[in-house]
What we know:
This protein is α/β, with parallel strands linked by helices. The chain has a single domain (about 35-230), classed as 3-Layer(aba) Sandwich (Rossmann fold), CATH 3.40.50.880. It has helices at about 30, 45-55, 80-90, 95-105, 115-120, 210-230; strands spanning about 35-40, 60-65, 75, 110, 120, 135-140, 150-155, 165-170, 170-175, 180-185, 190-195, 200. It has a 7-stranded mixed beta sheet with strand order 2-1-3-4-12-11-10. Glutamine binds near residues 80, 82, 139, 140 and 168.
Amino acid sequence: MTRLHDLPRPGDPAVREPVGASAASPTPGELALSPTIGVLGVQGDVSEHVAALERAGARAVWVTRPADLAGIDGLVLPGGESTTLRRLLDYEGLLEAIRRRGEEGMPVFGTCAGAILLATEVVDTPVPHLSLVPMTVSRNAYGRQRESFVAELEVAGLEGAPLRAVFIRAPVIERVGEGVEVLAREAGEVVLAETDRALVATFHPELTTDGRLHRHFVEKVRASRAAKRSG
Length: 231
Ligand code: GLN
């Protein structure tokens, strides 16, 4: 069994991108076309997401105040602790501002607690948070035995080897609503899903060196930007 502290961390000099992954830095031309993606920077694995987005060819910026949303084409909501994140979002006036951008169609990628923030229904929580993705999530739904674990996922539409996924006090997606496509399950539970504008993972893709999910999100953001320009 792989233990969490054995996993390579992004930024570790000994860590190389897997063979076949594009490890090269984006060229100036690519950079000019790069979307700008915000990472909600109030709690959690913010710098890991920033690094992963940059490796995936995006410009990445921290979002800590509503004004930071103005220049971004997409937003990542990292893991952490959803009740704390919610309090900080309220405190900074970010909850309504993010919801408004999300309702206008800005792509969002929620990982672990970030996915909880995006759900329209959270078990045992009377009022959901951002309510942007039609799904029901249950917090801390894996028992003590499986509080944190690593799994290899078969992901629909993802080429190459199975995706290594790190779960840390993860939620479970109990139900997905209309327009939500399930991309991966682990032991029968939905762990990765998407809509045309959102990607949700109950695990932490920023804690491995496999950049495929971040690249997929960057592509989603590019597509939405292109659609907006031509529309
Ligand atoms: N258990 C946390 C919550 O309920 C989520 C854990 C995580 O993001 N790693 O918010």
